[in-house]
Structure formats: structure tokens, C-alpha cells
Amino acid sequence: MTNKPSKKKFTVEENETIDDCLARMSKEGYFPVRRTEQPIFKEELNGKQVEPVLCGRVIVFEGKLL
Question: I want to staple 40 with a disulfide (CB 3.0 to 4.6 A). Which of 12, 56, 61, 66 is the partner?
């Protein structure tokens, strides 16, 4: 018998769809209880000012053990 944590975070990888991530969660015995999205910014020079520019996002699911 293995001791799995009751909660675990799963990040949608760069070459993975959301459905693939949910299937991976299910395979490990977890079901999703929360989804969060975190923006990714990069700094670009605009004239003399450096401004943040949105360049992507990271999707993280929190899973709870079945």
C-alpha cells in the first residue's frame, strides 16, 4: 500500500492538452477540484520604457485523491 498525498497539483505541460492532463490525473487516482491560470509576462522595450507584455499562461489543476 502506497501513501499518496491527499492533494496534488498538476500542471498542463507545454505539449499537452487540458484533456491529456485530466486523463493523467485520473490515471494517478485524483479528480480535479480547482483550476487556476497564471499569466506569463515578458518585458519589452517600448521607446524608453520597459513594459510587461503577456506572452502565455500556465494552467494548474489541484487534484484530490479518490
Answer: 56
